[in-house]
Write a structure and sequence with these properties.
728 residues, mainly alpha, CD2-Gal4, 23 helices, 49% helix
Length: 728
């Protein structure tokens, strides 16, 4: 080998470098080293070990040390979380012992990991950068220690989350079983946020709510005994401050409480939600039009221009709106969200939202209660007009508004309905049912005053025309098609609920005319036969639609609470029709509805380990129907009070209604049909002949109206989504 090569001169240069080195003792003392071998002069005087280091180690962390430390800490945290979960499940130690054990474990693991880090070779390869979006690798860290401490402070006492695989099953079960009935969380956006930051406060609250509502759909889940404490934590934490995630979590909990038969628990949550959505400015559209208040309200939520998030907020409001209407119709309470509060566009079609395609939807007209009293035409009950002033405030079928000038043409009233989907139509149908309760059944009239009766029957006919109008103006893709040969393979849950709700609304509207109270002196002049036929047809069609839906839907998929209420109303009116109609037989559809409620109860319970006495909302409905049937068999003179559906279901915390609360019925649970008509004394202020009042309702057009939606009406129930993608 040539002497000029680097390899040839290496020993000589190494020897020269060694001779010029100072020992470690002199370097630390900052003295000039004599470089004597084996010990220098300073080391001989002090008795220190004289060590010459040929290769000096540079100060500071080695290459890749930070990434290596982060990775080890992640592993340490994961192992620590698993130990905490295990310790809480077995409950073998006290809290103080658990804290000491946890602290000892942390110190032991750190002591074991740090020597490995310090002994890592200096020439170790630098770890490859791993994107923080991958769930099994390094997650994105908080920007500051203060932010992390804040998250831990707000998440104090949070129930431990299950391991990642089980948590993924919970999220999947939620979007498969619960989301179709309360579609308010954008699945793709939520999963991206969850993967990117598992310490996001709103994500954690929603995840815990998903555990409460969806863990029962997972076989072998060990979380059943912790669900009550998880629910309490979700409610208390979500009410700590106003946030979108907190509202979503409360909606999930309220929906689950109602379906699980714990309706009183949901009442306070729904009441809080109806006010909180107003505080969060979710009941109003923003940046729409030129009208602005002089004093702007405080914004609880941050402003955003992301259309996907804006639609998510809009859907959160409409789900609260549906809960408010559900409580109003089922319990007979006043609505909390009124026309003075609500000025919202309808939610868009779920496909457009999932694909994040921005669109604009029409407004829903909310009737003004002050203008909707008996005696005022409901054509002037809507409150708002659109911001542009060129079109009316419309619902799905062009509700009239009072603020547009009389010269406005019908072309201005038309709304583009191509951007809305089944969820929006369900909202419209639910609002129609709520209008019947608020503007007809809850109105107070004097049955001895012909003017009051005349106005009340006029309102009845107006609402009847509105319902028929809704059915007639359904989109072309959902209208009846007699040439349809392809069977409906999958029924959309929201669209099916909308149509069943429409038929149940017909029952609620017509049943009081079909089966009038015996002391009404004008009851023989009512179109009772026509209304009874409408009620009977609606009940039969609800049974038929439900049979098809239960058969075509997955056997493990639950059904929404409002659907169950509609079945209860339908079965109840069939039972009343049997008792009021001489010589009739109880239709088989009654038992079909009862069996459907039993099946819905089974699906709702799923795999939960509840006690044998636990009852869902659906089982309460079916048990009540069986009880009414048994009472009718035992007492041939018993008649069902047709208007008692709001008070006859036992909610445990219910305050008994005094007998005089309903002036239209006697104190007995039923009344025989052969009670003679009571003499109706005319009001001193009005002596009009009561027998002449109902004649306006006996025209042929009124009798021949097509009121009820049947399953055979074409593709009115077909789902427009792909089953592989999910329900939207």
């Amino acid at each position: 080998m040539p002497n000029g090569s680097p390899e040839g001169i290496q020993p000589e240069s190494t020897t020269s470098l060694t001779e010029n080195l100072a020992c470690n003792g002199c370097r630390k003392s900052k003295l000039r080293c004599s470089r004597d071998r084996p010990n220098c002069l300073h080391c001989r005087k002090t008795g220190l070990e004289c060590v010459y280091e040929t290769k000096r180690v540079k100060p500071g962390l080695k290459a890749g040390a930070v990434e290596n430390l982060h990775r080890r800490l992640d592993d340490l945290e994961q192992r620590l979380d698993e130990q905490v979960v295990h310790a809480r499940n077995v409950h073998t130690q006290s809290d103080s012992q658990s804290n000491e054990s946890t602290a000892y474990t942390v110190l032991a693991l750190l002591a074991a990991e740090l020597p490995k880090l310090l002994k890592s070779p200096a020439n170790a390869p630098t770890p490859t950068f791993i994107p923080p979006t991958q769930p099994n690798n390094k997650r994105r860290r908080l920007d500051s220690i203060e932010a992390k401490e804040y998250v831990h402070a707000t998440m104090e006492n949070m129930p431990p989350l299950p391991h990642r695989q089980l948590l993924g099953e919970v999220v999947t079960a939620y979007f498969r079983h619960v989301h179709p009935w309360i579609p308010m969380i954008h699945q793709g956006k939520f999963l991206r946020t969850y993967v990117a930051d598992t310490e996001d406060r709103e994500v954690l609250i929603v995840l815990q709510a998903m555990i409460v509502s969806s863990s029962k759909f997972i076989p072998g889940t060990p979380m059943a005994h912790t669900l009550p404490s998880v629910r309490r934590w979700v409610v208390s934490t979500a009410m700590d401050h106003i946030s979108l995630g907190g509202l979503q979590a409360l909606i999930i909990v309220a929906f689950d409480d109602i379906g699980s038969g714990n309706t009183p628990k949901a009442w306070s949550i729904v009441g809080s939600l109806t006010r909180t959505v107003e505080y969060a400015q979710l009941a109003q559209e923003h940046d729409d039009g030129e009208l602005r208040p002089f004093c702007p309200p405080y914004a609880s939520l941050r402003r955003t221009s992301d259309w996907t998030e804006l639609e998510e907020r809009r859907r959160v409001f409409w789900n609260v709106f549906l809960l408010d209407r559900f409580c109003s119709v089922t319990m007979g309470w006043n609505t909390s969200l009124t026309s003075h509060d609500v000025y919202r566009r309808l939610p868009c079609d779920g496909h457009l939202w999932r694909k994040q395609n921005p669109v604009q939807t029409p407004y829903l007209g909310i009737w003004d209660k002050s203008r909707g009293r008996i005696g005022n035409p409901i054509g002037y009950a809507s409150r708002f007009a659109s911001p542009s002033g060129t079109e009316h405030d419309v619902g799905l079928h062009q509700d009239q508004a009072n603020s547009a000038p009389p010269a406005t043409s019908m072309s201005n009233i038309a709304a583009d309905m191509s951007t809305v989907g089944a969820f929006a139509y369900n909202i419209e149908a639910t609002e129609s049912m709520s209008r019947i309760m608020s503007y007809f059944l809850q109105q107070k009239i004097n049955v001895r005053d012909s003017n009051d009766i005349n106005s009340w029957l006029t309102r009845f006919k107006e609402l009847d025309l509105r319902l028929v109008h809704w059915k007639m103006l359904l989109p072309q893709k959902w209208k009846a098609n007699p040439n349809l040969t392809k069977p409906v393979e999958l029924m959309d849950p929201n669209l099916t609920t909308a149509h069943v709700t429409h038929n149940a609304s017909m029952i609620l509207l017509h049943q009081i005319v079909a089966y009038p109270l015996p002391h009404w002196g004008f009851r023989n002049r009512l179109p009772s036969a026509c209304s009874a036929e409408a009620c009977y047809s609606a009940g039969v069609e609800i049974a038929s639609i439900t049979e098809k839906y239960v058969a075509k839907s997955p056997p493990d998929s639950p059904v929404g609470n409002q659907y169950g209420f509609c079945l209860f109303i339908a079965a109840r009116v069939l039972l009343a029709h049997w008792r009021y109609t001489v010589g009739s037989q109880l239709p088989t559809e009654f038992w079909s509805l009862v069996q459907s409620l039993d099946e819905m109860s089974r699906r709702w319970m799923a795999l939960s380990e509840s006690s044998a006495n636990a009852q869902t909302l659906f089982s309460k409905y079916s048990n009540r129907l069986r009880h009414l049937y048994d009472v009718c068999l035992a007492d041939q003179g018993y008649q069902i009070d047709i208007m008692d559906h709001t008070i006859e279901l036992d909610h445990h915390d219910r305050v008994p209604r005094p007998a005089e609360a309903n002036d239209w019925s006697d104190a007995t649970p039923g009344f025989p049909l052969d009670i003679p008509e009571l003499e109706v004394l005319p009001s001193p202020a009005n002596t009009m002949d009561l027998n002449a009042i109902p004649q306006m309702m006996l025209d042929q057009d009124f009798m021949d109206m097509d009121r009820v939606i049947a399953f055979d009406d074409g593709s009115m129930f077909a789902a427009a989504f792909e089953p592989s993608i999910g329900f939207w």
